[in-house]
TrEMBL record:
<feature type="compositionally biased region" description="Basic residues">
    <location>
        <begin position="1"/>
        <end position="10"/>
    </location>
</feature>
<protein>
    <submittedName>
        <fullName>Uncharacterized protein</fullName>
    </submittedName>
</protein>
<feature type="region of interest" description="Disordered">
    <location>
        <begin position="1"/>
        <end position="143"/>
    </location>
</feature>
<feature type="compositionally biased region" description="Basic and acidic residues">
    <location>
        <begin position="11"/>
        <end position="139"/>
    </location>
</feature>
Amino acid sequence: MRRKRRKKWGIKKEGEEPETRREEKSRRREEKCRRREEKSRRREEKSRRREEKSRRREEKSRRREEKSRRREEKSRRREEKSRRREEKSRRREEKSRRREEKSRRREEKSRRREEKSRRREEKSRRREEKSRRREEKTRGGAVAVASVVMAPWGLRQPLHSPSRSRSACPPLRFQRRRPAPASLAASLARCGAARRRPASRCVEAILLRLFGAVNISW
């Protein structure tokens, strides 16, 4: 091959100078070098475009990930906000429930206090009523005893029923209505058994016994 080429270039053509062939050879060499450089440049350009494309793809992927991250962050903040709102609402409801419970307990306490006060007043009223009835009963018993002792016909009977039997004993009747003290019963028995005593002294003794006097000496 080299031999042929050498032979080819060795053949001298008519009307062709050696310098012209050398220039052609140099021109083709330069063209070849230029094409090689162009090819290299295109390869580099292609590589650069590939890298640029890869870079843009990575940038796009990065932006997509960033966008997704921001969306997730936004969703997370929204959920956090919703959770705080629900927590706040729950605390408000809990506070309202505790307030209502406190108010209910206060009303219940007030109601119990009023009920207790009402029962106390009712008890006091019943006690006063009982005391009043006892006083009325005591007053009625004293009048009955006084009427028995001061009967003008000398019988131990109340003035409002003179037709009763002589065996009727008003002190016993008086004791059935309200039990008398033992000392009062003894005084009545003595007064009834010994009618020789003056009636005024018997009445005085009975009334003093009924209304708080003690140690009555005859």
